[in-house]
User: Fold this.
Amino acid sequence: MPQLFDYLPPEGQALPPAGSRVSVSFGNRRVIGLVMDSGEVDDATNLKRIEAVLDRALVPAHLLELIHWAGRYYGFPPGEAINLVLPGVLRRLKPFRCPPPQRLAISASGRSAEPRNAPRQQDILDWLVDGVLTRDELLSRGASAATVRTLLAKGWIAPAGQEEPLAAEAGPELNPEQRQALAAVLRSRHRFASFLLAGVTGSGKTEVYLQAARAMLRRGRQVLILIPEIGLTPQLIRRIEARLGLCAVVYHSGLSEGERLACWQAAASGRARVIVGTRSAVFLPLARPGLVVVDEEHDASFKQQDGARYHGRDVAVMRAHLLGIPVVLGSATPSLESLNNARSGRYRLLRISRRAGPAVQPSWSVADLRGQKGALDGELLNAIDRHLEAGGQVLLYRNRRGYAPVMMCPSCGWQADCHRCDAHLTLHQRASILQCHHCGASQRVPARCPECGEPDLQPLGAGTERLEQQLQQRFPEVPVHRVDRDSMSRRDEFGRLLEEIRRGRPCILVGTQMLAKGHHLPGVTLAAVLDVDQALFSADFRAPERLGQAVCQVAGRAGRGDRPGQFVLQTRHPEHPLLAELCRSDYLSFAGHLLDERAAAELPPCAPLAMLRAEAHQPQPAQAFLRAAALRLDDPAVEVHGPIPAILSRRGGYWRFQLWLQARERAGLVHALPDWLASLYGLPEARRVRWHLDMDPLEL
Assistant:
């Protein structure tokens, strides 16, 4: 709902301050509310009272200011704010027993306490006088969980602070470019500044983050490090803890509700000195913030695609601005949005042009697939053989999971299509199913063609499952590891595989984007991108940028150790100007040309863009709503285009259309949207569709 709701304070009590968590009556329900503001009213006769104030000023003022900004900029209803700043257990009335802390210490009041007729309580206090103990150690000495909870409730014991469990490792010596980048960040340690750290893959960007974090921690400040995906967490956590000598607190959607609450409370109290999390961690309360880092800032995973559609990177920059602290955005392949901000002077560009240590950039070559049958040509197979014989590891990138992206009848041309989406069904041979990777619909593989009865249906193309099979047949003595969402479904499975890979034994890795992002794999000496041609002719204007990022990220996995690396790019269009530009220059030069093209076409990031999307089971209601919405927007600063079908016009049984909203100045677009959006809720056509606004959209 697009508005806030007014309540009176509880009977006989003062107004609760902004940021308080309260319980209220809403219709015929009791729900949790978050106080956003307070003021005077002329007539309060129709207002209900707050039933109870559960936590006063739970959300700090600077975090409220951040969600106010995010709601205005991204155009989501104010009620979405509570989902951003409070973990799930604090959004429900049902009591929740917090998981006990794992490390416990005696408090000041506990040192002077004299529990009467409670010898087990006295034993625990006596044990903790000598130092911090874990909960398991207390239980092994004979303490009961109930007694530990009692002492925590009395405040006689408390969660132990994040102390240094090990001496921090010194880490490698920084090269001149790394030292210059670090000095620039530390010069801004007392004020807001936004840095874009653009370093080639393997250049030691993480070492710059960690040295800056160490300096902030020495001053008693907290450090927030945002990463795009959970899969990057284990490797990065170990490195952070080894360098900083502190336990890092992790926050992401894969945690249990209790674990998320414990992290939230540790960040709010200041006990968590180093917090590592995915995009939602940008809204964690921080007691003593000192530095924000956004690693792999170009990654599309930082954009929330449902509910409040915010971008974690951009919210992180605004949060650092409100807190008056520096923010560092790091990537080997920066987004065009960040490069455009660097061009305009809003960000400071820090470049690291060479790899750290003795490692050098891999050699590049383009493999022409014209006339070749299958996804693996002979030259690439020979190269794989050479690198395996030399003791190296091989990484093959194919952004298609499953066995084959299309199943077709050779007699009549029938193709297996999803009945709910404008997309083909992907064959998963091991499970013997055809599955849609857009809506999740699946069905058994038919024994015959449904149209003509032909029994010999043919899979076309190659996904990771088919490549895994072909590689196992060609190299039976070498382990072949498939890395995609199908094969890495269990928790911690990916982390265990990375540990095995880092032992350095020869192996072949074949996978999707999970494998290409930010992983340090020093044993990989050959990397290849298989079949990039679809991105060369995409209707999405962002496709060339994504192609360049994927190619450079995969190439960067090779040669990161002490052996030289090789990179192979497979295509049936080796003469394409986009590939030629990518191969003869570095990524920043390639991205600079893309920025010039975007500016000439008046496309993001050189011109602001918002999309109003609508979907319905039939195309007419969605189009009618968007036409009515376009008529409501009467602002000469905003150009309206559409309704336009989405690139995937039908998904999950819904027809999808959109309005493009463009303006020359971002401020003009942002100013025009709030009142217009509020008016759309009253349109009769709005009741027949699902709709939302997407500011700075990444998907078309």
The mean pLDDT is 90. The two ends are 26 Å apart (CA to CA).
